[in-house]
Automatic annotation (TrEMBL):
Entry superkingdom: Bacteria
Protein species of origin: Nocardiopsis mwathae
Pfam families (alphabetical): DUF5719
Protein name (Swiss-Prot/TrEMBL): Secreted protein
Region listing for Disordered, in residue ranges: 59-90
InterPro entries (alphabetical): DUF5719
Length: 479
């Protein structure tokens, strides 16, 4: 036995034999006890028990910023929710939130990213949004507080008065991260020293200025990715002193993308599409308005070069209508919509998003917007008729009556809702027999020529997740 132990090759052989025997016994035992004709094990539905969201530090002067969160009542109660600066050991700001009641916090003077942490029942269905409004002149911007990740995509505007385009990244983990930024323009990919190997310390942040890199280009698709670690990434586009907003993250490259929440009104609206692979892509664009699908010859057979983006003006076809845009391509693409109103003084950005559908992903949350800002809920049903149930939740947690909204197949509908006075939450749920719904919230401030808007997709906020079964795999035997 001593000789075997001292011989590392013999020892390795013994380990391999033992593992093979263990795996064989497990397989044989399962085979003898299982019915060959039995149905495959089903996914297990379990509650979400932990959530982490990161909000970028507010940008600009002459404004007020507010962080709003909401968690619907679920589970057995309990749990915690708190928000604080991304500084290790820093105390939380404000009081801890509670499930079923809107929670808001003034973050006007915050200079670091804010980290929202939830545990237990407070994590199930959590949504968090940061909204900024002007103190003197009309101005509104909103950004969804996101989970840290290794890859985030944005579809951004180009020249049209663009003054600054900056990527804000935050690393909330205890180890350093390294970030690369890829930029796809009509002339192909752009690379600069400032976009490669950007170090972000543990609990640190970085701002990557893309302004000089995209100077003179019509459109830019931006991909923020990490080589090491993970970060929460946000993109801020500034056209003029009032024409600035966060660009919502859009979906990763796919052959079919749906973009909800394209606001109506005058001004330009531009679709941004990029083929990020090594092959050219042909795409068709379908536009669904309150009147149904538009028929426009310029929306089919779009040829997108490999590794490049391209703009497509929607204004002539859309007029002043609100819309949901669907892009279908023969290869993976990234897409978004940039809008400009009042001669470029106001901008807003719509992004591709997952639909609300099914029992797990059938609910979205719109946290409270600041007082004085109006909210419109845009619902698109490009794939079939849909039924949506909306419930308003007042500041004290009292729920209003459930309001049903019908959306015709191939249409976009603005929900006509009764809402309480003051700040309130909207819970958006699809009915069991409903088709998928692509939803977005459009915030507005001011009126007439001074009216400004911001749009944000309503993403699924699951209170439960599906865990797949594991069987007949080596990982089921060896950790």
């Amino acid at each position: 036995m001593r000789l075997i132990v001292e011989n590392r090759f013999a020892l390795l052989g013994l380990v391999a034999i033992a593992l093979a025997a263990l795996f064989g016994v497990a397989f044989a035992t399962r085979s003898m006890g299982a019915d060959a004709g039995a149905a495959a094990p089903a996914f297990e539905q379990v509650p979400v028990e932990s959530a982490l969201r990161v909000c970028p530090a507010p940008v600009g002067g002459d404004r007020e910023s507010e962080l709003s969160t909401y968690t619907p009542v679920g589970g057995t109660g309990g749990g915690t929710l708190s928000a604080g600066p991304d500084i290790e050991g820093a105390p939380p700001m404000g009081e801890t939130g509670e499930a079923g009641r809107p929670w808001t916090q003034d973050v006007t003077d915050v200079e670091r990213p804010t980290v929202v942490r939830a545990e237990g029942a407070m994590a199930a269905g959590l949504e968090a949004v940061q909204t900024t409004v002007g103190e003197d002149d009309p101005y509104v911007a909103q950004v969804r507080c996101i989970e840290p990740g290794v890859s985030t995509w944005f579809a951004a505007p180009g020249e049209n008065g663009l003054e600054k385009l900056r990527v804000h990244v935050a690393n909330v983990d205890g180890t350093a991260a390294t970030v690369n930024v890829d930029v796809y323009t009509p002339d192909g990919p752009l690379v600069g020293e400032e976009t490669r190997g950007v170090p972000v310390d543990a609990h640190g942040e970085a701002v990557i200025d893309l302004t000089g890199l995209v100077d003179g280009v019509d459109t830019a698709v931006v991909h923020v990715r990490t080589n090491v670690g993970r970060v929460a990434a946000a993109l801020f586009a500034e056209n003029t002193e009032t024409g600035a907003d966060w660009v919502a993250p859009t979906q990763a490259p796919a052959e079919r993308l749906a973009i909800p929440g394209v606001p109506g009104g005058g001004g330009g609206r531009q679709l941004i599409v990029a083929a990020t692979g090594e092959e050219a892509v042909t795409a068709d664009v379908r536009v669904y308005t309150t009147e149904g699908e538009l028929d426009h010859e310029g929306f089919t057979g779009l040829s997108i070069p490999p590794g490049a983006s391209m703009p497509l003006s929607l204004q002539d076809a859309l007029g002043r209508q609100e819309a949901t845009i669907v892009v279908e391509a023969d290869g993976p693409v990234v897409a978004g919509v940039a809008t400009a109103r009042s001669g470029g003084r106001d901008t807003a950005y719509a992004a591709a998003a997952d639909p609300l559908e099914g029992t797990v992903d059938g609910r979205g949350i719109l946290p409270a917007a600041p007082d004085g800002v109006s909210t419109r809920l845009l619902l698109g049903a490009p794939e079939g008729a849909a039924t949506v149930v909306v419930t308003a939740v007042a500041e004290d947690g009292e729920r209003g009556e459930r309001q049903t909204v019908q959306v015709e197949a191939g249409h976009t509908t603005t929900a006509d809702l009764e809402t309480p006075d003051g700040a309130h939450v909207l819970m958006v749920e699809v009915a069991e027999d409903s088709g998928p719904v692509y939803a977005a919230r459009v915030l507005s401030d001011g009126s007439g020529d001074k009216r400004v808007t911001a749009t944000l997709p309503v993403l699924p906020a699951p209170a439960e997740v599906l865990l797949p079964p594991v069987q007949d795999t080596l990982t089921g035997v060896v950790p």
